[in-house]
């Protein structure tokens, strides 16, 4: 389901990064405004953070997904009506395990998905502390979504849907129960975030001039488009 | 942590983080520990500002704005745009976690005032550092160095950079003492004058590095990362984690455990022991295995204005060549500001540093401080400079050297690559970085 390219669905474009955003066409669709956002994942180990991303970006699911290794910087595009929203997705790379996430991780993040496992009450409690951490460390207007993952395991549910919903509502978070295994609500939660993100000219998290990325062939340096170039 | 690792890395300074990243990428199972609850060790950027004041036991003043807007480096350095660290960043893909800005100005001190460092022929002709005839000689010198190819004797023009010294090179072009001074110290970036008597090849390579770096982004050869230098170790730590490295901050290291043959076999933290075949660490984790070889003084200065006579540059490097102020080693001034997200709006952070030569180091940096104009707050640190007692192969304990007074990362990278080679017996293979694991490349 992550391979359709109709408006309102995710498209698989992580292989096309070398093309400038402005000239990229989407299966012949009319070219439109491209907005790029940094999205970070947070949550206790083994709640399915990487699985959610893998499902969203590649449409894959592995029952015995190893602890995060080897891929911690994926991109995926979501089409809204006249805007292409490109997510630059940061996975924790396991650095959350011993509370060793670097400040760099939160830096400039415009969106976050805080994940818990609906079969494990403790991961929900931890999710709440991650939300607090984001409120403390991240940009004040970050869009946060709470994902109750493993909704396919409803028989083992330990976290009440309504309780999580109420918590999310109180704290201004988007909320969905998701399943990386069945793909339920996976694209939807990214879409909901895409809709909520501000897409004006000034969406830079810091609101100031940004630096540049350095690349191999950098004789003609490009600035990093934070949005809508 | 009660597991067995190929390597345990202690301290998350830049050198250790690069090593950790390279080891993980090479397929080693790495445990990386820091006793502090933050990344970066001595190469951290301190945030919020309150932490910095606390570190120096000084009461903070509300004039500085939001503490969280500050990220103050403990060690001042810039990246040469075409230097070793940039190559490492690009080849490992760590560059994608970082954003940089060019340093706006590169200045050199002469006779009590500062002038822009002329790094190409055009700038040489416009420079106020030299008289008309000297400018021509300097221009010819620069052109010769640019065109010199060690592999092609046709470009040598009767000068062999392997056997003839830099002093002889200067004499060949008739450069006067003043031009020699800014060339050696502000372009080739030597800290003292020992290079004059050595073969000219190294100096020529350094001059080329400077001008190639300058050519890359314009204004100056230097780059500086947004949010401070502390982002660099974090970036390499992330690389290590992505390749399976395990991270533990805020973890005491009580003992490096040696086996009967005198080789490391693990580390102990409280009652826990993590086994390993190798340990890599900074000198602070093994005080009994390093020797002090000098001292560096660094003075962090908070200011609410740019440095006078730099055309209001938001970032600057100023080099005071030793001879100008009767010293044996140069004084460095580096300035960054709110534009790099290292200070609250309107604020600047200057750092004056040098290798200590006397018993009163604060006196030694006075010429640097005098260039800055009014300073709101100073924090002075004199740090010892340590080197390992032995190269580590016999104990499998590899110790990095402390950060020296140079204002760029070239020596840092050389130390890292050398330790990696001692530890693994081979040069780092950049092709092991799998750029295509679903990521941007």
Automatic annotation (TrEMBL), chain A:
Its EC number is 3.6.5.2. It holds the Pfam family Ras. It comes from the Eukaryota. This is small monomeric GTPase. Residues 20-29 have a biased composition (Polar residues). GO terms for biological process: protein transport. Residues 1-29, 201-229 are annotated as: Disordered. One of its GO terms (cellular component) is early endosome. It is found in: Early endosome. Its main location: other. It comes from Folsomia candida (Springtail). Belongs to the small GTPase superfamily. Rab family. Keywords: Endosome, GTP-binding, Hydrolase, Lipoprotein, Nucleotide-binding, Prenylation, Protein transport, Transport. It catalyses: GTP + H2O = GDP + phosphate + H(+). InterPro entries: P-loop_NTPase, Small_GTP-bd, Small_GTPase. GO terms for molecular function: G protein activity; GTP binding.
From TrEMBL, chain B:
GO terms for molecular function: GTPase activator activity; Rab GDP-dissociation inhibitor activity. One of its GO terms (cellular component) is cytoplasm. Belongs to the Rab GDI family. The keyword Electron transport does not apply. Regulates the GDP/GTP exchange reaction of most RAB proteins by inhibiting the dissociation of GDP from them, and the subsequent binding of GTP. It is found in: Cytoplasm. SUPFAM superfamilies: FAD/NAD(P)-binding domain (SSF51905). Coiled coil: none annotated. Keywords: Cytoplasm, GTPase activation. InterPro entries: FAD/NAD-bd_sf, GDP_dissociation_inhibitor, RabGDI. GO terms for biological process: protein transport; small GTPase-mediated signal transduction; vesicle-mediated transport. This is Rab GDP dissociation inhibitor. It comes from the Eukaryota. It comes from Folsomia candida.
């Amino acid at each position: 389901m992550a391979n359709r390219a109709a408006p309102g669905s995710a498209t698989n474009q992580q292989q096309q990064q070398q093309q400038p955003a402005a000239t990229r066409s989407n299966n012949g669709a009319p070219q439109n405004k491209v907005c790029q956002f940094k999205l970070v994942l947070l949550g206790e180990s083994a709640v399915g953070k990487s699985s959610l991303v893998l499902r969203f970006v590649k449409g894959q699911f592995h029952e015995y997904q190893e602890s995060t290794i080897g891929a911690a910087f994926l991109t995926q595009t979501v089409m809204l009506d006249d805007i292409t929203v490109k997510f630059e997705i940061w996975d924790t790379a396991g650095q959350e395990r011993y509370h060793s996430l670097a400040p760099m991780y939160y830096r400039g993040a415009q969106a976050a998905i805080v994940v818990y496992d609906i079969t494990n009450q403790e991961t929900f409690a931890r999710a709440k502390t991650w939300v607090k951490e984001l409120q403390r460390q991240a940009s004040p207007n970050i869009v946060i979504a709470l994902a109750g993952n493993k909704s396919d395991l409803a028989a083992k549910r330990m976290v009440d849907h309504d309780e999580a919903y109420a918590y999310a509502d109180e704290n201004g978070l988007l909320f969905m129960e998701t399943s990386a295994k069945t793909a339920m609500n996976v694209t939807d939660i990214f879409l909901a975030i895409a809709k909520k993100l501000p897409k004006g000219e000034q969406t830079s998290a810091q609101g100031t001039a940004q630096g540049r990325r350095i690349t191999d062939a950098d004789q003609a340096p490009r600035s990093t488009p934070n949005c809508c170039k | 942590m009660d597991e067995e690792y190929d390597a345990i890395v202690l301290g998350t300074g830049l050198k250790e983080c690069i090593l950790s990243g390279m080891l993980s990428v090479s397929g080693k199972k790495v445990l990386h520990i820091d006793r502090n609850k933050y990344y970066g060790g001595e190469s951290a950027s301190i945030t919020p500002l309150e932490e910095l004041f606390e570190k120096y036991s000084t009461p903070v003043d509300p004039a500085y704005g939001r503490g969280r807007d500050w990220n103050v480096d403990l060690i001042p350095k810039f990246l040469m745009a075409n230097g070793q660290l940039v190559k490492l960043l690009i080849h490992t893909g760590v560059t994608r976690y970082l954003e940089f800005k060019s340093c706006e100005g590169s200045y050199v001190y002469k006779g009590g005032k500062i002038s822009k460092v002329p790094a190409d022929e055009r700038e040489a002709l416009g420079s106020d550092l030299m008289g008309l005839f000297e400018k021509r000689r300097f221009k010819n010198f620069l052109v010769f160095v640019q065109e010199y190819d060690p592999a092609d004797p046709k470009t040598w023009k009767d000068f062999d950079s392997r056997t003839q010294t830099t002093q002889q090179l200067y004499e060949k072009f008739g450069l006067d003492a003043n031009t020699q001074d800014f060339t050696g110290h502000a372009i080739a970036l030597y800290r003292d004058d020992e290079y004059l008597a050595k073969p000219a090849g190294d100096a020529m390579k350094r001059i080329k590095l400077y001008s190639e770096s300058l050519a890359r982004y314009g204004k100056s050869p230097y780059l500086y990362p947004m949010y401070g230098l502390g982002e660099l170790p974090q970036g390499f730590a992330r690389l290590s984690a992505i390749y399976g490295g395990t991270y533990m901050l805020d973890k005491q290291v009580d003992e490096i455990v040696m086996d009967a043959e005198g080789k490391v076999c693990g580390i102990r933290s409280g009652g826990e022991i993590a086994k390993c075949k190798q340990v890599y660490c900074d000198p602070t984790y093994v005080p009994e295995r390093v020797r002090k070889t000098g001292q560096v003084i660094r003075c962090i200065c908070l200011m609410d204005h740019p440095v006078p006579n730099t055309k209001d540059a938001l970032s600057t490097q100023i080099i005071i060549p030793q001879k100008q102020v009767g010293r044996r080693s140069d004084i460095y001034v580096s300035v960054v500001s709110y534009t790099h997200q290292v200070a609250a709006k309107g604020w600047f952070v200057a750092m004056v540093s040098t290798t200590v030569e006397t018993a009163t180091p604060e006196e030694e940096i006075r010429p640097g401080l005098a260039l800055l104009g009014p300073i709101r707050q100073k924090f002075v640190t004199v740090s010892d400079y340590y080197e390992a007692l032995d190269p580590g192969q016999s104990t499998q304990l590899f110790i990095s050297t402390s950060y020296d007074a140079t204002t760029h990362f070239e020596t840092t990278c050389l130390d890292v690559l050398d330790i990696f080679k001692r530890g693994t017996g081979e040069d780092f293979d950049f092709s092991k970085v799998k750029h295509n694991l679903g990521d941007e490349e």
